[in-house]
Write the structure tokens for this entry.
Amino acid sequence: SQKIEQNSEALNIQEGKTATLTCNYTNYSPAYLQWYRQDPGRGPVFLLLIRENEKEKRKERLKVTFDTTLKQSLFHITASQPADSATYLCALHNYGQNFVFGPGTRLSVLP
Amino acid sequence: KAGVTQTPRYLIKTRGQQVTLSCSPISGHRSVSWYQQTPGQGLQFLFEYFSETQRNKGNFPGRFSGRQFSNSRSEMNVSTLELGDSALYLCASSPQTTNTEAFFGQGTRLTVV
């Protein structure tokens, strides 16, 4: 069955550093991979979508890579700020099919 | 543009009861998906509706059901509630299909006692 892992349950980094979160998957060949941010008690908020034929996507301080050979996506937040502290979820899907979410990584950016 | 609205925000029910949760998608969005989120299992897909038809269904028992109305509003129903149904239930809407981002509501926190 499909399995998605995110590098660690929790990640602490110092303000100003680059946070790198990992999403690995097995038994799946997704056409799309998305990253979401979720704050406590709230629904996830969409950040970035990357397609299987794209290697990299950027949006402001965010960068996502998608390696279908390694079955891995990396999510980077540069110049991290305490306001970036949240849980980050990766989600995989194919056209017309439901999303499959990873367990999430709780990021804490320390001032 | 108003976001996805879920009602109620909080709900406490007793084992054996049934519950109906409501979701109003973003105006113009035709796809509505429902998810259950628990600390142990994470975000799990329940079902997706598109133009009043169920298109995809997750691996949940038949006690979980849903429907979508002609105005795209959706409801999900859970019958014969169990303690393990306590969770945050999230609704997400998308413009057309699931190849675009999903816009989530704030969720309904259901507690079964």
